[in-house]
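Chain A, query sequence.
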Amino acid sequence: MIRDRGAIKWTSMMLPEHVKLLRDWAKEDLDQQKPDLDEQQLEAMNSLLFEAMEAGKQLVITYYENRRHKLLIGKMHHYDEFNQKLHLVDKFGEPHYIGASQLVDLRLNN
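Chain A, predicted structure.
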């Protein structure tokens, strides 16, 4: 039976630069791609946004930020056409500002 130290024996042979590169590489593997939305999806999200804003319904919004998909549940406060940002308020009363180009998915919260 071979009794070695496993990964421990390799640590002395690793330079700090190599360790940093390996960690950066592992982080890159977790990066997600932003999907391209077609015209139908954009139109459906647009109508859902304004329906939720008029009725005061809660939305479940998936948006893309810093190479990650993030989820937010809240009510639509208003849409800033000049800056093209959605102003949302979550259940704790915290305001959130999301760019329209960052939206990935939009649904009504039941």
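Strands lie at 58-65, 68-80, 85-90, 95-99, 103-108. The mean pLDDT is 86.
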